[in-house]
Design goal:
About 40% of the residues lie in helices and about 15% in strands. The protein is globular, with a radius of gyration of 20 Å. The protein has about 350 residues and is of the alpha/beta class. Strands 1-9-8-5-4-2-3 form a seven-stranded mixed beta sheet, sandwiched between helices. The chain contains eleven helices and twelve strands. It starts with 10 loop residues before the first helix and ends with a helix.
């Protein structure tokens, strides 16, 4: 079976962990600081604040910016639950809108229609590694004086018109979960060009303290450890090469797959292919995935239940494109360690299943 995901962990990462373990400095320390400085290079020099997960990065960014009770934040429903959870955890209300089909981005027209007097921010999601429609969404935010937060959990080093994701809004949030394009084992990163937001985020992650026992605000404990940061630092040095290989794998699929809708790339956008997500439109998607599994190809279904329909929110909304795509989207293996033989197996399996069902 070719798995849907295959984390890349090698001797370099093990050596980095051993170095930290031998140092005796395991909690947030010099490795975290170095990781923040080095990650800044892929987000256009933005300030970086490392935390213990991508969800914490989303949550801390909202709290640091003052988003809270009575505020509304517009988000897509076609995403992982953490997108909306972070808004709710900050005390604000997530307002779910529809997406467009090509790039799985929040539909700018739907965003415009959802703005009320309580709307304080919008949060595009750079889903599957393709940037959201940031030019259009940023223009809407500017017109209505709204903050832009970016959920960049899946989009390390993606960009639009040369501007990296994580640099478009007041804050971006990245994840380093094991299956992401790079990992720290677990962890997240807030990126921002705001000195004040960066300072408050650092306070919040450390019980509200900049100096020990001088708690300035009520904070959390969402620090990243030096152990995790050391892994992230090694992975970051490999990210460019891995991204190029993901893009090469995607190009191979673009050229050879048939009978399914392959993921387009918007003009000016750099897609980093956290997932290579096709749409199965002429057959039952779940049956299609089962048939691929029988041929030795693992797949991922992200996300079968839109967030607004989860028990945690359970809202009666009409989001037709979201509903449609949730039954069609199927992610194929695209990670950099795919072999040529595995790529051929994936193509042959998809084409055979598509042909059999046509």
């Amino acid at each position: 079976m070719i798995p849907a995901a295959r984390p890349q962990i090698g001797q370099d990462e093990r050596d980095a962990v051993d170095r930290v373990m031998s140092s005796g400095m395991l909690a947030q320390g010099p490795e975290v600081s170095a990781f923040e400085t080095e990650f800044s290079a892929i987000v256009g020099g933005a300030q970086c604040v490392a935390v213990n997960s991508g969800t914490s990065a989303l949550h801390m960014a909202f709290v640091a910016a003052g988003i809270g009770a009575g505020d509304e934040v517009i988000v897509p429903s076609f995403s992982f639950a953490a997108t909306a959870n972070a808004v709710a955890l900050a005390g604000a209300t997530p307002v779910f809108v529809d997406i467009e089909r090509d790039y799985f981005s929040m539909d700018p027209a739907a965003v415009e229609a959802a703005i009320t007097s309580r709307t304080k921010a919008i949060m595009p999601v750079h889903l599957y590694g393709h940037p959201a429609l940031m030019v259009e969404l940023s223009a809407i935010a500017a017109t209505h004086d709204l903050l832009v937060f970016e959920d960049a959990a899946q989009a390390h080093a993606a960009s639009v018109n040369g501007i990296p994701v994580g640099k478009w809004g007041i804050a971006g949030s990245f994840s380093f979960y094991p299956t992401k394009n790079m990992t720290s084992g677990e962890g997240g990163m807030i990126t921002t060009s705001s000195d004040e937001l960066a300072r408050v985020a650092r306070l919040l992650r450390n019980q509200g303290m900049e100096r020990r026992y001088e708690n300035e605000v009520v904070g959390f404990n969402t620090r990243m450890t030096d152990i995790h940061a050391s892994i992230g630092r090694v992975q970051l040095t490999k990210l460019a090469g891995w991204t190029a290989q993901r893009q090469a794998n995607a190009a191979f699929f673009d050229e050879h797959l048939s009978g399914v809708i392959t993921p387009p790339v918007a003009a000016g956008s750099v897609h980093v292919y956290h997932q290579y997500t096709i749409r199965v439109v002429d057959q039952d998607r779940d049956a299609f995935a089962a048939a691929l599994a029988e041929r030795g190809v693992g797949t991922g279904v992200y996300y079968p239940t839109p967030i607004h329909q989860l028990p945690s929110f359970k809202l009666d909304l009409d989001l037709p494109v979201t509903a449609e795509v949730a039954t069609q989207a199927l992610s194929l293996p695209v990670y950099p360690s795919l072999t040529e033989a595995e790529r051929e197996t994936i193509v042959n399996a998809v084409n055979d299943v598509a042909k059999a069902g046509s």
